[in-house]
Fold this protein.
Amino acid sequence: MSETSSTATRSNKNPAGSWLVASNPTKFRAEEAFAVRSRVDWSESSKAHIDVDDTIYLYGSSPISALTHMCVVEQVGIPFEERINDDDFWADSNALLERKARPWMRLRLIHSFSEQERRVLSLESMKLNGLQHAPQSRKRMPEGVAELIARELAVVKNFWWVNQGGTADRRQDFQHLWAPLTAADGRRMRHWDSLDEAKAGDVVVHYSHGYVIGSSQVSKASSPMARPADFETGAVRDDIGREVWLHHFREFEVPVELEAIPLELRRDDLGEGSPFEHSGKVQQGYFFPIVSEIAGEIFKAAGLLESGPTDGAERSEASAGDPFAQRQILLDATDGKAIVSYRKEQSGLRKLLFGTKVTERCGICAREYPVQFLHTAHIKSRSACALEERGDWKNVVMPACLFGCDALFERSFLNVGPDGVIQLQGNYNETPSLAAFAKSLEGKVVRAFTPTNRVYFEWRNNQLG
Ligand SMILES: [Zn+2]
């Protein structure tokens, strides 16, 4: 195990704890502090056993009486003199002075609970879920409250990898997983037994032919099941097995090649259960756990990560009519723990193509527009692209403006010659306005044209025949 992954080692062997910590606004105005800062130092109590990487849920004392913030501990044992100076947020300066002799811990904000979430995570409902009385100081998170939070945030923590092998073309493989109990010689196989550890809500990534092609969520944990009629797996002694049901399978708009997952992560000795050989290649087998850091790299490469804390408003808008978009995952990313939410599948490509850009030039006419007026246009149509071509989004996709270029290109009024020069075809003279616009582009070199994507333009030309 390399030094850089020491955090992953710790959480594997000694799971980080969760704590309820009382936050009294008449002493320290945490609400205001976290509104403008991502890190706040908090005094430790002498008896506390809070450690780096632990999760802290701040409980806002009366009149708030609800969970307000979720944080992760970045550092402990900070002397008073070295803490972040946030005296402005101390409502009670005596309370601050009383804490002068204590060590402090650094909290990094992961998530501020929205008003709606606070109603669910109120003192009253926590009491119905195993909390005995309002938190004073700090205490370990009762299991029932942890479950309540997980349900409310729909936070996913466990990730699995399934080797779809050659069967990925069949839709049923995205609806359930099945493995025999034993191999032909009677041995149990770890990568089959692992199905029994998947829980409803866990996220599964599907791997096939060198690419992670999509993700789904476990809808029903493992149960005994005879081999489904539609299911083939190698040499198996009998038909007794177990089945895990999946739902919400989403094919990635941009499939993720294995190399997008950093080799160090694939090489790490993450235990027998890892889907990777020591060389970093994918090993033979069926169903494997993966650490959230790897899942994070996959979702990042697919353009599906919305990083940073999300607020309730953003989430409810994103999830309107699409429960899948509401899903959030807790990741150990290289830049720390974060709750991230999935974007809708359709926006993965936009995220990769535009990133955080506000404006961009049209790949055809080269005019600059706000990105909301640019479409992600496939030079070779997506349905005709092989997996590796879909993964080659840098070359196969270009921005095309909605003020005419995209429509003319999609409807094949624009033909791009071998040198990148625009030629017109079709009935572009149908009206004077259409003709005027089309003529304005004729003879220009397509801005996005490069020696590398030329083959994709060629494909389009051949389609036009
Ligand atoms: Zn344009």
Remarks:
- The chain has three domains: 3-141, 156-341, 357-464.
